[in-house]
Amino acid sequence: MKKNLSVRNWIEDLPKRGRIAFSIDDVKNQFPNISKRALQSLMNRLVSKGQVCSVWKNYYVVIPAEYALRGAVPPIEYIDNLMNYLGHKYYIGLLSAAALYGSSHQQPQSFMIISNSENIKSKVNHNVSLRFFIKSNISDDFIQRKNASYGEINISDPVMTALDLIMYENRIGGLERVASVIDGLVDELKINDSSSALWTLYPIPVIQRFGYIIEIILGYSELGEAIYQRICMINKCFRKSYLDPRLKQKKIDKYPYNSKWKLYINTTLEVD
Fold this sequence. Notes:
Layout: H1 7-12, E1 21-23, H2 24-30, H3 36-48, E2 52-56, E3 59-62, H4 79-86, E4 90-92, H5 94-100, E5 111-115, E6 123-125, E7 128-134, E8 143-148, E9 151-156, H6 158-167, H7 175-185, H8 196-199, H9 204-217, H10 221-233, E10 241-242, E11 257-258, E12 263-264
Parallel strand pairs: 5-7, 10-12
Antiparallel strand pairs: 1-3, 2-3, 4-5, 6-7, 8-9, 11-12
Helix pairs in contact: 5-6, 6-7, 6-9, 9-10
């Protein structure tokens, strides 16, 4: 590195090298003689001028020209670097993953990330909301690597995205919204090509609701049958449950019962 290269030049040149995210430690490694006070003063100036933004404690993102008017960078451009910096496994999931696959029924207001860390908290910076969901067992087998403008990202494959949508439905707008989003994912769902191991990661009632929504609510009978046969192949047994687990009632006989999916239909779903 040239001796006359300033910290500011180094930061501003990051996008030219295909990178926009950096930590305070990255700067210190490049410029070990810079004082803490001088570095903090520089970062404050760059933030105030809209040249960088702080997205996490001691972690910053250069704002490229294409995002200058917005004054913030979409998380898809730095989430991989951030999660590596924090040392947590992750993938982009739920409504954010569905949107990236083309299911844009409703654009999510938050960028949704599933992580294995219980200590990471959702936060909002510069009108950008990072929303974290915790899953202790994250398997790389069902995560796809895709390109972003400044690097790569982890994203759940379409089938795992759909199953996650069902599992976390009570935190992302309910089953009706989830059904609409899954409808936009249908062309991406390759059930017969999915791994048996994937289905073992989810509670059976989640799979039952998924199959019922696909086959009955959305009307994709062949796809619903493929889900049913997939579960039969791995010897999973359905058990009586509710379509909406939040509306459990003691008098279950008053609800219609779907014998194939073994669900009491205790709610009505209307999909646009």
